[in-house]
Each structure stands twice: as structure tokens, then as C-alpha cells.
Amino acid sequence: MRSSDPWRPRRPRTLAAAAVLALAAPTLAACGSDGPGGGGDTLEVWVYQDGSSTIQQEFVDRFNETSDIDIELTQIPGESYQDRMRTAMGTPNAPDVFFNWGGGSISDFVAEDMLVDLTPYFDDDPEFQDAFIPTILDAGAVEGRYYGVPMRGVQPVILFYNRTLFGEAGLEAPATWDDFLTAVDTFQRDDITPVVLGGADIWPNMMWLEYLLDRQGGSEVFDRIRNGDASAWGDPAMLYAAETVVELVDSGAFGNDFRSVATTNDGAPTFFASGEAAMHLMGSWEYSNQLTNQPEFAENDLAWTTFPTLPDGVGDPSSVVGNPTNYWSVNSQVEGERLDAAVEFLKLHGDEDYAQALIDNGDIPTTSNAVDLIGSSPNPEFAQFQYDMVENAASFTLSWDQALPASQSAPMIDAIDQLFSGQLSAQEFVDSMQEL
């Protein structure tokens, strides 16, 4: 989240499930010297391993040069990150500080008093709070209290495409759904997979439903779901989105083996960069991943556009889906000097040096000075596109599995997998979701 991305694992677990797993799971490296509540001189920080984790390591090293309490950064592969994190929380093996997605992804921990409420630190240090874009900071809050500090770039979902393949086929970036379907047909005739999809991870499949629903019915439909109206799963726009997904799968738009392709092991991005696929719907981190792992492709072939409009859709074409960013949260068992050190570490992420490091990596930081740094990006054109996309969006719908509590998101992810695999029809998918 990248391995290949800063998004999510396949099946988030509830705290109850995590507790059961903790009894059977192999013991992880203990946090600090004595666990999160210990009195040692080390903080254990967990991060999702990907193309940006080198930045986190760099700033951990900087912090350790002047701090009496050192940080040990543990980089965990994306495919196992959240399972390990949720299993460890509440045990002596829990991290002191850890990477997450804010909001719904940590609400269970907040309910169990497992996290430090950071609100007083922002209140006492207005410069710390003002360093971040307010809407991004608020997006990581739970019930109006801050439990996370932004630590990566903004993450809208973008339709990436191979400009070379499109040029050779005489095609422009698809602005409408008809344009998109024309591209699918054209690339199939040329024996090129139209769209690479990391279906083995399941959550990339969700992005298609998210945008199709948003473009067809507007952001209001999922707003109703997020606010507890289960009947909104039965909205005609949701059925349309599910039916369209089935049509794409049946037409071969995603190829024949997408359920065996993963994003978290860099399989889908590598396949895309090889020229075997023409398009990839993915979070904005796709650019920085490709810049790190496939720089020639990133510089010569990678292009981007917004999700196409639908012929009868009522959704605002400027709306985006995705994640505002990722966050650091602090285990509530961390106290005293170790907590003071943890907070000082968090404050580094509001500094211009950190924002510049994200810019250099192809990301758009969530700091309030981001617009002033865009010109120094490795690709100012992409940086400006991404910034404008977020700045001008009529709405920014949080990724469904992060917006919903784990008790709903886990069965939803399973149902999405069954929809894409043909085990559920579009109507059966809608019916099953209304029963949650």
C-alpha cells in the first residue's frame, strides 16, 4: 500500500477475530524493548512496505541522530500488513506507532481505547495542526478526535494508461464510456489485455464498483450506505455498477487470469509496465511505484486520466474516490518519555523537508504548503494533475472498505470477490449487501 500500494489487505478482521488469531499466530518481534507499555529506550514503528517506505526509513534515521529514544522501523509486506497489525494490537507484540488508513480502519481500536488521542497535541501546538490540509487531517479523525497524523501523499484513484500503446492504436485517453469500450475492443483485437486488474487482492476490484456507482448515481448513494442506510445497496445505480462489472469480466476486459494476478506483490504493476496491458485503474501511488521500480516506463509510457463519464450517469465527473492519505497512530500503552518521543517523530511529518521528500518521490503531500512544492516534482505535469483533481473534486469518496466498519467491510470484500468470480450475479450481490 506497495509491495505495490498503500491501500488495504484482502480481508480486514474484526478485533474479536484478531484476538483469536493472536493466540495462534507466531510471535512477532516485540515492540520497543518491553512491548508498547514498556520502559525501554526504543520505539517500534510499523509501516506498509512499498515504494515510499524508503522515505520513512530516511526520516527515522534522521530522528535517531538526535533522539535519546531510537526508532526501529519494521517494514511489513503489503499482503500481510493489516492482518499482522490487527492481530498484534492489544498484545505485548503490538507496535508503538503504526501506519493505517484513518477513519474506519482504526475505529475499532479507538472504541477499545487502544490509541492515543492526539487532539490535545494539536491544540497545544497550532503550528503542528496548521501544517496539514484541514480536510485531510479531519479525514483521519474518529468522532471528531484526532488519532492519526498524515504521513503520505493524497491518494485519489486514477485511470492510468500506456500512452505508447494508445498512440500506436490511434486512440486518445478515454473520456466517455463509449471511448473506453472502444479501447477495450481495439486492444483485444491486438492481443493486448485492455485492463490489468490485481484480482487476487480483491480490493482493486472494488475501485471499479466505486467509480461506476459514483459516475452513475452520484456520491450520495454511498453516503447513504456509510451513514447506515443498508437499503442504498439496492439503489438502481448500484445494480448498474454490478451489472457493468459482470459485463466487463465476461467480455475479457480484464483478461482471463486476473484473479491470479496480485497488486501487493507488484505483479499487476509489472505486467502493466511490460506493455502487456493498456490500462490500470489504481491509486495515485502507481506513479511513484513505477518511478521507483520501472523508471523507463514511468518516464516514457505512463499517462493518466480521470475515470470516464457514463452515458446516463448523474454523478459529477469531477468527483473522485480513493483515500485522502495514510496516517501514523500511537498505541495508548506508550507513555512518558517514549510518548513524548513518538509525538516529536509525528511532528517531523509536517516539516517542509518531509513534504519535499514526498514530492521527489512523485507524491503530493498533505501539508498546507504542497501547492508551492509541485514545481519541483519529478513530473510536474502529473503532480499538478493530481493536485487539481483533488482540489477541484465535487466530492472525495473514501474507499468503501475504509469507510465502513470491519464488521461490514469484510463480508463486502468477500461479496465483491464472488461478484467478479461469477459466484454471485449482480442482483445477488446487491441482495447480499442489503442483508448486512
UniProtKB/TrEMBL annotation:
InterPro entries: Bact_solute-bd_prot1, SBP. Residues 1-29 form the signal peptide. The keyword Signal applies. Coiled coil: none annotated. Gene3D superfamilies: Periplasmic binding protein-like II (3.40.190.10). Pfam families: SBP_bac_1. Keywords: Signal. This is Extracellular solute-binding protein.
